[in-house]
Amino acid sequence: MVVRVRETKRRILRAELAGFFERRQTLGFAPYSERPTISILIVVWNQAELTLACLRSLQGAVAGIDAEILIADNASTDQSPLLWDVISGVRIFRHAHNQGFLLAAGGLAREARGDHLLFLNNDTTLEHDSIGRALASLHRRPGIGAVGARVLLPHGVVQEAGNTIWNDGSCSGYGRGRSPDDPGVLDWKYTDYVSGVFLLTRRADFIRLGGFDERLAPAYCEDVDYCIKLWRDGLAVVCDPAVVVHHYEFGSSATPEAAIALQRRNIGILHQLHGDWLASQPAWDAGGIETRFCRDSAYRGHVLVVDDRVPDFYTGAGAPRAVALFEALLALNWKITFYPTAGCRIPSKWFQDRFGSEIRVIHAADREVFAKWLELYRDTFDTVFISRVHNMEALGGLFTDVSQADRRIRVIYDAEAICALRDIVAARIGGSPLNEDKCLRMVTAELALAADADLICAVSGGEAECFHDHYAGQKPVEVLAHTLGPRPVFKAEFAERSGLLFVGRLSEANSPNVDSILWFMREVYPLLAGEIGGPIRIIGDPSALPADVRRLPNVQLLGPVDDLAPYYEQARVFIAPTRFAAGIPLKVIEAARHNLPVVCTSLLAGQLEWRHEHEVLVADTAEEFARECIRLHGDAALWESLSQGAGRRYDEQFSPAGFTAAVGRIFNPPARVSSAEQPSDADLVAVETR
Known about the structure:
The chain is an alpha/beta fold and 690 residues long. The protein is elongated and about 95 Å long. It starts with a helix and ends in a 24-residue tail after the last helix.
C-alpha cells in the first residue's frame, strides 16, 4: 500500500510539472532585503516534479516573512534546469557536477545572508505557517539551537516527531508509523537531533560550530553530527509538532538502498567524532522503546498531572490554578504529561496558544485502560501529581502501586480543597445538619486518602493544619495556593465607580455560587432599598437562576464575558456572600488583585486568614451584609484602606513569584541520572533516513 501511495503521488506531481510547462507558467517570490530574517537552503539533484511542489508550498509558507531562497542544483539532468528559467526571486547556484548534499548545502550556507538558516529537502511540502512557527519556537526560551518538525509521510503517518540517537550511533524517529494526531507526537519536546528534512538554526551558531562536517560527505548523518555539536555546546535541539512538513522520503536519493549504505558508513565516522557522547546514550531497546521519552535528560524531571479537564478560559475556579501550575513547571524545565479524568477533548485554541504544544494531553476510555497505559509508561515519570479528592479516591490506588513498584516515582496528592468541610456546612444551611460523629467520619475518611502519598499539597494554611494534625506531623504538607498574575494598575478612583459586582459560575443548581447569589438577592437585596447608587452586576451564566431573580430592578445579568477588567474598574464593591465552600475563594483573590474591596462571609475570610476592616469587611447575616455593603459603598477612606490592605496580602500570599517558589519546593526531586529517550515504534529500522 505504501509503495502504491508513493507512486500515485509521483504520477500526480509529474502531471502537474508537465502542465506547468505546457501552460508556460512562472513562479515568483517577493523581493527580500539584504539582511533577510531567514535563508532557506535547498539542494536539488533531479526530481523536478518534487522541487516544483516544494517551491509552490514555500510561496504560502514565507508570506509575511523576509526570506531568501537559495537553491543548489547538483548537475540535474531532468527538467530541473528548465524550472530555473521561469522562477524569480530565488538565488540559484548551478554546479557542473554532483557535489552531494553536504558540500552543496555547506556552500549555500556560506552564501546565505539571513540571520537564520533553514535546511529543507526538495522532496517536501510545508503547511503555510510552518516557517513562522519554527522561528517562534527557536526563540521560545533561551538556549535553543535548532528546531525540527513533525514530518509526515505520503500515506499520512508520521515519519518523525523528534529523533533518538542510540549508543551504537543508529537513530530512530519518534512516532514513526503513528497517526499524525496521536497525542504522543503532538507535544513540543527536546530531542537528540532533528533531520535535515527540515532543520532550522541560527546562522551564527552554524558558522561558529563549523557547519556540516565534510568528512560525512556526500550525505547523511551531517544533521546528527551538527545536533550533537549543538548539545555539546550547551544548546538544545527541539521538535515543534506545530511545524508540519510532508515528506516524500528518499525522493532526493538515487535509491533507498544507496541512502542506507551511506548512513551505515557515516555511523562509523560519528563514533570517531563523538564516541564519548554516544557512550552516554541509551542502548537501542526494541522492547522498551515505546516507554521512553525523547531526550528526557534535558528536563528537570517528568511529571504526570491528573486533574478533571483541560483548562480553558471559561472553566471554573480550579482552572487558573492548574494553568499557573503548568506555567511554573515549564519555567522550572519540567516535562508535563496531563491526564484529564473527565475526558479529553481537543485542547482549545486558547490552551494551545498559551502552551504551544509543550504539554502532552492524553486520554483513556476508563480506569482499566488508564491502568494499562500507566503500567506501560510508568518508567518515564519522576512524579505523579493527582489533584482533587474524587480523582484520588477513584485512581489513587493505581498511583500507590506505581510508587511501590518504583520508589523513584513520587506521588503528590493535591487536596485542592477538603470537600467534607464544605458538605458539612451545606447540610447545616440546607436544614439537615449532620451529627458530630458523622462529621468526624467524613473528614477523617477524606484526609485518609492521602495515606500513601509522599507529599500533600493543601490550598490554605488552615487545611494544611488539618492534614498535619491527622498525620501527627509525620507526612510532609505544603501549601500551594493560587496565583492570578501581577496586579494591574487601575486609574478609576472611588468617585468614578458605582454599584456592586458578583462574579461566579451560576450554571449548576445547588452550587455554592448559586446558593450565595440567591441568598443575597432574596435576603440582602431588599434591605439595600435604593441605598446603593449604582447597578448590581452579576457576571456568570445565569441559567440556574430563577425568573424572580432575573427580573429584579437595578440588576444586570451579564453572562460570561471575555475580559473582566472593565467591570472591576467600574464597580465600587465586590460581594462574596458564600455560605458553604472548601479551599480558598478565588473570586475574593481576583477582586483583591484588581484593587476592588470586598464584603464577604466569615467563612471566606477565615479561609484566607484575612481580617475584618483590614483586608475585607465580614458579614454573615442579611442585615450585616446589607449594612457593610452600604458602608463600604459610601466611605471613600474605608474603601481606599481595604483596597490597599487586600492588595498587600495578595502580593504576600498569591504573587506569581511566590507560587512558582512553592512549586519549586514541592517538585524538588534529585536531578535525573538516566538518559532514557523518547519512544518510537518497536519495528523501526536501525537507522532513520532522510
